[in-house]
Amino acid sequence: MNFPPITIIIPAFNEEKAVAGVIQRLKSARPGDEILVVDDASRDQTAKLAEEAGARVVRHQVNLGYGGALKTGIRHARHELLMFFDADDQHDPQDIEAIVSALKDSDMAVGARPKNSGAFYRRSGKWFLYRVANYLVGRKIPDLNSGLRAIRRSLALQFIHLLPNGFSLTTTITLALMRSGYQVSYVPIQVKDRIGKSTVSLKDFFRTLFLIVRMTTLFAPLKIYLPASLFLLILAIPSLIVDLIHRNIADTTVLLLLMTLVVFLFGLLADTVALVSRRAYSDPPAKTWDSDTLS
Question: Who contacts 137 (Cβ-Cβ below 8 Å, separation ≥6)?
Fold first, then answer.
């Protein structure tokens, strides 16, 4: 399959055990592509080994996080087509062609990992996050935070100011694109056991959950405010019935009814603001290749 050269962005933090092998396999499978390693202020030999393996390396002076490294890679990439690729040797370079080819019919293509991959405690946390994310975007998401994905640089730059520096960047860009009406496709992949220790913690779970809610408030606020106002109304109605029976409207009932009205009206206002804001993201960037290029 024929498509233009791509930039493969590899965020790396203390990945000296795996990074050289990952780059060598990528160069063997993708000799015409740019391999860009963003060293996120590693304390080991990650940057040196990456350069010796033939990658272009950009270094951070301070640790910004996984998302911060990806954003640096997006800004420094030399090609329009971007591929995010992890440095821990979980991914197969042979999957890149199918994922990039999926951009023919979508705006972002993601490698969807098997459902039962990863440790049990992490799968339990993901199950909850997936249920929340699926409700908030109104569709089933096969893989919310896969690190193997392809996107056009111009589109990524369009949303880069919304993206966090932490591990939830992939989650955030998925939700942002879906809520803005862009097409996100999924390509099944297999993953290997990672080399080295994962740095994802319980704190990242809560950060991701908070960002999911924040992104939904930005792009679809009624998904948050409408259920909240209905909950308050459910609390207010029994209280109102009891007060009417006793012919005395209590302050608690008045407060609940006012809170219901305020939350509902605030949701409508937030939805109007979000609708106006989405106009800035409604026009997809022009492609630098046509569909024949990927056929």
Answer: 175, 178, 179, 216, 220
Please identify, among 164, 187, 217, the residue that sits at the C-terminal boundary of a domain. Answer: 217
Q: What is the DSSP letter of 104?
A: G
Provide the 3-class DSSP secondary structure of residue 140. Answer: coil
Of the residues 195, 217, 239, which one is the last residue of a structural domain? Answer: 217
pTM > 0.90: no
CATH of the domain at 11: 3.90.550.10
Provide the number of structural domains found in the chain: 2
Average pLDDT across each block of 10 residues of the chain; the chain has 295 residues. List them in order. 85 94 95 96 95 96 95 96 94 94 94 69 62 79 91 94 86 87 93 66 69 74 88 92 87 92 90 68 54 50
Residue 48 lies in a domain: yes
Residue 151 resides in a domain: yes
Query: What's the CA gap between 99 and 106, in Å, rounded?
Result: 10
Counting Cα atoms < 13 Å in the Cβ hemisphere of 53 gives: 26
Structural tokens at position 116: 């039962």
* Cβ within 8 Å of residue 167, ≥6 positions away: 65, 66, 67, 145, 200, 204, 207, 208
The answer as to whether 18 is a domain residue is yes
- Count CB neighbours of 270 within 10 A: 17
> DSSP alpha helices (H): ranges in the chain?
19-29, 46-52, 66-76, 96-101, 120-137, 153-159, 169-179, 202-219, 222-245, 251-278
Residue-range definition of the domain harbouring residue 237: 222-280
- Verify that 126 and 230 share a domain, yes or no: no
